[in-house]
Amino acid sequence: MKLSTEQFKHDFEERLTSKFAIELAKAGAQEKYGALSSVVKNYYSSIWAADNHYKDESNKKQAYYFSIEFLPGKMLKSNLLNLGILDTVREGLSDLGIDLDEIALEEPDMAIGNGGLGRLASCFMDSAASTGLPLNGNGIRYRYGLFKQKIVDGFQVELPDSWLDNGNPWEVRRYDKAVEVCFGGEVWLEDDGEGHFIPHYQNQERVLAVPYDTPMVGFENTTVNNMCLWRSEVPKDLDLRFQNLEYMNQTAMLSSELYPNDSDYNGQLLRLKQEYFFVSAGLQRILHHYKATKQAPITHISDFISVHINDTHPALCVAEFMRLLIDEYRITWERAWNITVKVMSYTNHTILSEALEKWPEEMVKSLLPRLYQIIIEIDRRRTAELLPKVGAKLVHSTRIVKDGQIHMAHLAIIGSHSTNGVAKLHSDLLKDVELHDFYLIYPERFNNKTNGIADRRWSQIANEPLSKVLDETIGKKWRSDLKELKLLESYKEDDATLQRLQEAKYEDKVKLAKLIEERNGIVVNPTALFDVQVKRLHAYKRQLLNVFHIMKLYFEIKENPTADRTARVHIFGAKAAPGYHYAKAIIKCINEIARLINNDPDIGDQLKVVFLENYNVSLAEVIIPAANVGEQISLASKEASGTSNMKFMLNGALTIGTLDGANIEIFEAAGYENGFVFGLTKDEVYDYYKNSNYNSRDIYEQNPLVHRILDAFVDGTIPNISAEGQQIFDSLTTYNDEYFVLRDFNDYVRAQEALEKCYQDQKAWTQAALMNIANAGHFSSDRTIREYADDIWHIKAKK
Ligand SMILES: *Cc1c(COP(=O)(O)O)cnc(C)c1O
Description:
Its cofactor is pyridoxal 5'-phosphate. Its EC number is 2.4.1.1. It comes from Lactococcus taiwanensis. Belongs to the glycogen phosphorylase family. It is an enzyme of class 2 (transferase). The chain is α/β, with parallel strands linked by helices. Helix content is 48%, strand content 15%. The strands form 5 sheets. Strands 1, 2, 5, 6, 9, 10, 11, 12, 16 and 17 form a 10-stranded mixed beta sheet that branches. The chain has a 6-stranded parallel beta sheet with strand order 20-19-18-21-22-23, sandwiched between helices. Helix 6 (116-130) packs across helix 31 and helix 20 packs parallel to helix 21 (581-598). The two termini are 17 Å apart. The chain is globular. The protein has 2 domains: 59-74 and 109-449, Glycogen Phosphorylase B (Rossmann fold, 3-Layer(aba) Sandwich), CATH 3.40.50.2000; 502-783, Glycogen Phosphorylase B (Rossmann fold, 3-Layer(aba) Sandwich), CATH 3.40.50. The site of pyridoxal-5'-phosphate has 12 residues, from helix 6, helix 22 and helix 23.
């Protein structure tokens, strides 16, 4: 959009007064943020309304991304950038004596997701809007986002994230679009005499779902998509007799809290209620909108909408869409089923068994009696149809209902036309191993969509120093087409460019060093090698491998404090699920190791360990640009894709990583010589599983370094971790080290040594960094979302 500095200043000052009855000189940061966000909302609102109108009129197919999590972070700068007014606003504010970066801090992170899965959903929202694709989000407006993490005495402490206290300036509450979602009670079917069974309900618990629309503003175009988030409320016409305290609490609870588990399924009733709540509300709204705007009959709906099931949490979409078509729209089962399969598509995000959702039949039956009938019928009909075709063994292994449980992934695969994994290796594993039996039955449904990241946020917004260097080296086209970064390759031998890349990195590191000093009171040297591991704390991600290597360095420095070596800063950020005691023990250990090392005068600047609390999107935007090395060290086969690996690459960090998830594609794109690969391959891991021949205790007993490091966790070398250290020690010796940490340790050390040696040659290092940046174009989620649009949803971009 067009905006002059003068116009902006006028709008801003006027809004400050009209909104807060205050003049600029007296306004605090909160008020300035409130006025600014309100002005920005005003700027995009007419574009949004026009695009909604266009979507209704043009009759083009739209897709809906159902996700129980989104993790957008802050929206202010993203909205400014995408509207094309970031520089104008920055300048206008500066004229008024206001620092944009400072008031941007007033916006709380929108953290209604745990980690990678939610962040991917938000990257997709940004990319869809920015590529002009009509993709809308559908989720839950949690009153409390992911807990805030404090580190107290080395331990993780969880505090509520009450992010809505000052309101949410971006959203629009649309009460007129509210729908009802019902739970429990009894249902029976009555023949209407025309071959149709009409369900009758009794004693149902009614909940009102109220949508809050948050605009997803496209980058320098006219597309504004919608992320619809549902809030649960008490229906206004509910008899007061039913409004007892328990009901009121239950209703409020539905959209109150985000479950803080990442890669872990938690079979609680409230979670199942949340899943049905946003699924039912979202589908109802889609159908209402269809009826209101389309002339076509409901049986043509698959020409106009696609519904995407992001992981299994929205898998009830399959059964709920069937219910709506059959019960509300009176469509026959066969037709309804064909429509449903055409409309639905599904992404699998993990093969970790603890994350695979299975709900007890009894629970589904009592909470969702009609859906239960439909699921049983889907399963029954499919079994009858397939038995003669594929045989009992395959049918049984792929049944939706078995052993008293409803398998949500099975429901999603069977009820949709597309199942995709999120990186090549992961998609192959699905076909060859984890979902092999489904692949045998439905080979044409399986495909890969390698994840990506919203590069505008992770580069243009997060890393201005680098963005400037890129502009001045290869021009500005990379800002709208990340593939353009490839042009950077021809500057690989250009000393001036390498110099400037180094300077930009240094500037980012100084900024992070400042933050570390402010937050943790640790002074780090920005010329040191910044080695970063930021992601959820999970055993499979193997933060422990990193920690063990740090202990090795510590021992070496203690033994020979004056030797010449590369100074290193190891930076961690990670939240552990509150009930995941093992992960919390690792956090405690990292913090105690940090305390031990950072306060040892023998160690000095040679090694620092920093745990930054409350890792979230905003913190990631400061940490990742400053990294020299990104740690992507999960056990091969466990990390479906990873996306922080892509953020690091784009910001010129070198990856040390296993051949897991999208790491493989990153190494291939950047060149294996521009990263550091180590560890077991996926096949080697599966061989160990097949032969059951891994014995971690042997390694502990035979490898003196491993022995010494593990002992440090239990012999007081690392103070204050007697219980936590013991738990870790036992998991790696007595309980046979589930994620092969000890097995991969030696090779990890080798890779770390190679990395350190490379860092000593700053020119070679910076050339490798350049090659990473130059080849990051493939990992833009603009590319990913276009693949979904073309191959799965069949939606077209607005021209
Ligand atoms: C990108 C991102 C993640 C995902 O990180 P992985 O290393 O891919 O697991 C998690 N949390 C936040 C805040 C992120 O920005």
